[in-house]
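user: can you give me the structure for this one chain? tokens are fine.
assistant: on it. calling the predictor now.
[tool input]
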Amino acid sequence: MNRALLIALIVACAFFMENLDATIIVTAIPPIAQSFGTSATRMSLGITAYVLATAACIPASGWLADRVGARNLFCAAIGAFTLSSMACGAAPTFHTFIAARVVQGAAAAMMSPVGRLVVLRNTEKRDLMQALSTLVWPALFAPVVGPPLGGFITGVASWRWIFYVNVPLGLAGMALVLAFVPNQKADEPTAFDAKGFALMAVALACLTSGLDAVGARAIRLPLAASLLAAATLVGALAVRHLRAIPAPVVRLQALQLRTFFVGCVSGGCISRAAIGATPFLLPLMFEVGYGLTPVASGMLLLIYMAANLAMKAITNPILRRFGMRNVLIWNCAIASACIAACARISPGLPLVVTAAILLLAGASRSMQFTAVSFVTFADIAPEERASASVLSSLTQQISMGMGVSVGALMLNFSRLMRHSPSLDLHDFRVAFVAAGVLGALAIFSYAGLAADAGAELSGHGAGAGAR
């Protein structure tokens, strides 16, 4: 195994721990609330606090990596994440638990962009597709396995163990990072752009809170509108500031590249939002619509998860054969149709048909995630990789939040239109169709890419000979 692939695997394991912790808590909220003597509704702050802290702290990750070194920061982030996981598990009160979740989210903010930067800086362009492919699997695997795993651990042991399981993973990760990852840093570190960081943190916090309000059961539209308006205003001020100074906390030059903009912002953001809604909607539909137990729901999700992982074996050959632009367009159409097809799943549908829908949805989801990740970094120069990694992490955080919000909004909107106090299968059908339509909109963005976009990275066509 070459060094670049080994580093990518180490970073992928850290990403898995981070992604798993963001979702594993979902099924454990009721018992956690009960142990703290509070309501499950209030306990949802444990998820919101984590997401807010992650979004707010991501912009500082690139500057810190240049200042103290990518390996040192990545290792410290894993250590902080592990310690805060222990604090979550041992928390005696609600408030100490929330404080530990905030620290956990801040540590996670340093892990994603810095881990990706470590891989980008230590991988030759000819090996970049394989390395980036390795980094995709945690985002595919963790959101699907997290909720059922959380329910299983909570059922057989205690909710505290969903946090304690991070301790051996974190210790092993730190040892591997120190042993194999070089400590690269900027030759001339710049001063910290405190104003830019503050503006971005406020904008991202407002945006994340606004998306959460959109997806709330009560659909708090006035609050959501106010927060999203504030995010837009402060975000515009942040962009103006970042463009005006020579050493901003995040450089925006990468957005001028067509491939990066499409993969990171326009098409990629839409695709991730639509695809990200599926792992949120499926377990809810199985448990609410089907009336299945969390364990039985998890078994069905294993089909979806298996397709995600199996697709990885043929993703790179497909991209080499057909090219990134063609794969992005046609697979986007397939993935969107498969998301909408999940609306046909019902208790009376034969299991073999349900399994086929889940297999196709999982496989196309995997392909789209991977292709979007590839095209995002296809043309990024080495000197722009730090800022590009931060921007990519920001948009991923936003788009995945949008996916959950859109799914929750459509569920509750459909329920309200029926004047019903509870969800049923009809509401999930509306949500899946809406998510499929949303995903299909990304095709227009992908169609604007050049025919040879990412050819040097994928090895397709003329790019293969020029590589």
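assistant: here you go. The domain at 1-192 is CATH 1.20.1250.20 (Growth Hormone; Chain: A;). The longest helix spans residues 385-417.
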